[in-house]
Amino acid sequence: MAEVVILPDADAVGALAADLLASVVRERPDAVLGLATGSTPLTTYRALAALGLDLSAVRGFALDEYVGLPTGHPQSYRAVIDREAVQPLGLTPSLVAVPGGDPIETAGEDYERRLVDAGGVDVQILGIGRTGHIGFNEPGSSFASTTRVKTLTEATRRDNARFFDGPDEVPRHCITQGLGTILRARHLVLLAFGAAKAEAVAAAVEGPVTASCPGSAIQLHPRVSVLLDEPAASALRFADYYRQAWADKPAWQGL
Ligand code: GLP
User: In 3D, which of 84, 69, 66 has the Cα closest to residue 136?
Assistant: First the structure.
């Protein structure tokens, strides 16, 4: 099962996740990192940048991208990844891939090929949406799905409207790594903060494994770390056990 770690706040989670990423990169300077967008990974990127490692050989693959935004749009995930991850971390832009492009019909297969050619993702950072989505895999997504174009739910469009001038500006389509793609990464690190995520986190970690909660796919993966602040952990049934397991964790074990 997943290892669930509950910490006081997003900064503490970011520091722990950054330590994990740093240890992977120290071992393998050209490690393949799975990058997420949204507000959730920001404390991790900040903490990792503060460690001052040389990350110029690291390869990165973004989880998802909007379809239909003009090239260079500040809310395209290409622009977000450049701003929030590539620049602060000192990644090499040409080594960081974002799905999408022209023709969109074959962009998913193309991205899958690039992931395979890179040897797969060593550590995949994940946020979770209130609909339970990981990447942009909305409820109903197949657990075997690969990178493809999807339609966003209205709930997700509303949640993401804060980044746009208005709700109508949010694209209706996206291209996202599939649940099957995400499950191929060697280590999944799911981060969540705030009470608004508590239900989605509980459903993903402790609920039934079901396409109705795409995040529950993590229960099928042999190596998952779920790093939460207290409010995001507030609906977990076994929170006390997770706290105890973390407090009593053997020093040799690591995440
Ligand atoms: C977005 C992204 C996801 C992200 C999630 C949560 O729509 N496509 O990759 O994990 O929703 O976003 P946030 O971290 O801003 O709460």
Answer: 66
Q: State if residue 60 touches ligand 1 by the CB under 6 angstroms criterion.
A: no
Domains of the chain (ranges; CATH) run: 3-247 (3.40.50.1360)
Q: How far apart are CA 157 and CA 59, in angstroms?
A: 29
Q: For residues 190 and 163, give the distance between their C-alpha atoms in angstroms, rounded to a whole number.
A: 22
Let me know if 54 is exposed, middle or buried by CB neighbors in 10 A (0-12, 13-18, 19+). exposed
Q: Is the per-residue pLDDT at 1 higher than 70?
A: no
Nearest Cα residue to atom 1 of ligand 1: 38
- The whole-model pTM stands at 0.97
Report CA-CA distances (Å) from 10 to 18, 100, 228, 229, 234. Answer: 12, 30, 8, 6, 15
Q: Which protein residue's CA is at the shortest distance from atom 3 of ligand 1? A: 135
* pLDDT at 233 exceeding the cut of 70: yes
pLDDT for residue 103: 96
- At residue 108, the 3 state secondary structure works out as helix
